[in-house]
Specification:
single chain; mainly alpha; 6 helices; 77% helix
Amino acid sequence: MKNISDFFVRISNWKTLLLFFIIYLCFNLYFLPKVFKGMVPEEDKNLPILDLQFGYNPERVKEIVSMYTGEAKEAYIFNCAVVDGLYPVVYMFFFAIIFSLVFYKWKINPWFKYMNLFSFIILVFDYLENYHIVKMLKTYPENIDNLAVNCSAITLLKWVFAGIALLMILVGILQNLLRKSN
């Protein structure tokens, strides 16, 4: 882990931050919304997306999964495997660079060892969530209640850790600004 943490500290600068910010924006503004919609018929373009739901139950999951048939189902599976397979790596790099800049380059002591790898936790939850979504899409209409409960918990944890990461970054920036003003 030390080598990975050191790698992020070494590559972290304003240029890599800008590069990964642009890649991050491309995924959020283009790849994530457009790839799926470009693969499905017009009537399926506005189907709800499980990844973006918050605290769902098995009934809601069945309702959503049942909407995905044919091309839409295949497109969602492709999106989970390919586009949303790459996206966690992009945001993990982006956040690792931000953490490295805020807590290592700006000489604020990290609050814990390998703090710049915190976003790796979010990546793991995102991959677990994608696995469960694909499994539910492929398994339905068989019983998917356990998968749905697990997926809901994983999604919730992913968003909680994403919120914690953002809060840590904001507090680190504030801590740095206060330190410089003294």
